[in-house]
Amino acid sequence: MLPFILEKPRSTEDAIAAAAAGGRYIAGGTTLVDLMREEVERPERLVDINALPLGGIRVEGEDLVIGALARMADVAADPNVQRLQPLIAESLIEGASPQLRNMASMGGNLLQRVRCPYFRMLDVGCNKRMPGSGCAAIDGLNAGHAILGTSDHCVATHPSDVAVALVALDATMRVRGPQGERSFPVEELFRLPGDTPQIEHTLLPDELIMELRVPGRPRSSRARYLKVRDRASYEFALVSAAVDLLVEDDVIREIRLAVGGVGTRPWRLRDCEAALLGKRPGRQAFEDAAQLATQGARPLHHNHFKLELLPRTIVLALEMAGEIV
Q: What positions belong to coiled-coil segments (predicted)?
């Protein structure tokens, strides 16, 4: 690990000023510290934000509000989260080992770097690590890579599980920087790689995530998070699906659906949602809608199986949410 300067501001204003002067925010450090050890990331200044009052979890009206520094384990165990947004709790438990959940913050989880192995290999091309050097994954080992939202410059998937749930739930985020505060949907945080895959999100370098806000949902809706992976223990998703389903009078009245493990960002499936609205829940309706999920897919040599696995995962997640199985 290369030498660096560590600052520990006591106020949000001081933290933002330190970042504006060239510092990098660090909270749990579960991703950044590893990358610094491997010299993939080489920040000269770190801004430790753990002393900032951004770790609370509260209910405002029908909304659930989660501080950016709230630890994943605390959010997953919070009674209000489990009662109001069980999809978030389930995705957090599926998303990491207990040790990592105790350390990792919610804001940091959303901003974690990709888990493409070539990103960490300093002797091969990776446009995220070194723009213009190429993408070794395109012709390499790519079973775990994306089939949606890819470009000729990058095919890495976004690794977060809870981000998939937050996108499905229409969550928003509030951020603050030297120019003031702004709020926007979590879905808009993530950029497609295009020809600039090194720019992964829409935050300005000195903007700080303050909190996440998840709008209320009907109490009668049912939500599930299904994660398919190579092994049952801590592992990243090959395919995952977050479903929030409201059925009244045997008709689907509301449906929110997003998937992970297949896209270069958490992937909202609005065409699938539209195909299910007003339909009676059941295997045939679920299968017909799920086939729309692979529209525009660009499979690679080793991940063609995701074209079949993705619709099957969606169908099973819908059945689990609807308690059909």
A: none
The model's pTM is 0.96
**pLDDT tens per residue across span 43-92:** 999 999 999 999 999 999 999 999 999 999 999 999 999 999 999 999 99
**CA distances from residue 122 to 112, 118, 274 in whole angstroms, order as listed:** 19, 8, 44
Instruction: Note whether 128 and 118 are within 8 A (CB).
Output: no
CA distance 296 to 277: 22
Find the domain containing 256 and state its range.
222-322
CATH value at residue 227 = 3.30.390.50
CB 131 within 8 A of CB 196: yes
Distances (CA, A) of 38 to 1, 102, 247: 7, 23, 49
The Cα–Cα gap between 92 and 225 comes to 10
Give the tens place of pLDDT for each residue, 204-232.
989 999 999 999 988 888 999 999 999 87
> Does residue 241 sit within a domain?
yes
Closest CA relative to residue 235, chosen from 156, 155, 144, 308: 144
- Average per-residue pLDDT for the chain: 96
- φ/ψ of 280, rounded to 5, equals -75, 135
d(CA 78, CA 92): 12
Q: Where are the alpha helices (DSSP H) in 207-305?
A: 270-276, 283-290
Residue 148 lies in a domain: no
Q: Into how many domains does the chain fold?
A: 2
Sheet holding 208-214, edge to edge: 57-60, 63-67, 208-214, 172-177, 180-185
Task: Classify strands 172-177 and 208-214 as parallel, antiparallel or unpaired.
Answer: antiparallel
- Let me know: does 36 contact 2? Beta carbons within 8 Å: yes
Token digits of residue 297:
């897919």
